[in-house]
Amino acid sequence: MQYSKLLDCLHEYAESDFALFQRKLIFTKYTILGVRTPILRKLAKTFQADWKEVLTFPNVYYEVVFLKLTMISQLSFEEFVEQLPGAVALMDNWALCDQCKAKCISKNREALLPTLEMLFQSREEYAQRYVLVTLLAYYMEEEYLPMIWAYIRQANSEYYYVHMAMAWLIAEVLVKFYEVGITWLQQEAIPSKTHNKAIQKAIESYRLTQTEKERLRSLKIKMKI
User: Fold this and answer.
1) Burial of 224 per CB tally in 10 Å (0-12, 13-18, 19+)
2) One domain, residues 127 and 222
3) Beta-bridge partners for 31
4) Closest to 173 measured CA to CA, from 185, 162, 164
5) Domain membership of residue 207 as a residue range
6) Same domain membership, residue 100 and residue 131
């Protein structure tokens, strides 16, 4: 597959108004053409056989990087793990990070853990966010809760999108394992802004009762003005 052919295809589906809309939500160094996600996913599936060649293409356009990450997420587990560090290095915004979900993880969760640890320890913003959203998507079970809490406590909440992922993850724990989440909050072991954001997200959920939400409100930390 030729790079020029791929660009021609992307330009065919590009919408200028949608590109303007995306630029208000996605802050990235890549040029956004404005191709909608369902179309990108279809194109990734169409060109999957050419994934190795696509990975050699320049990282100029958001859509090209999106295709690379989507193709990598469709590989076998062994190939996925091999390509994952390079994939994470391409992520510079929440949208690219959060859409990179690989089905092969489900049956290889234990095998992926060393790679997640390696990525997390890089201390990069989107490497940490990728690990946290992967834990949310594939490890939300009781046996993994201690590990999830350990990652949350180590995460750098000074990065806005890491802070938001931390809060999102805690909120989901509160929904599925309420008493465990309460215990975490009672420790006050994470920054107050993230602590309170997690409570806010959990309270917004329809899956908690009003009594549970009131208890959460009582655990909010008063911020210094």
Assistant:
1) exposed
2) yes
3) 61
4) 185
5) 108-225
6) no
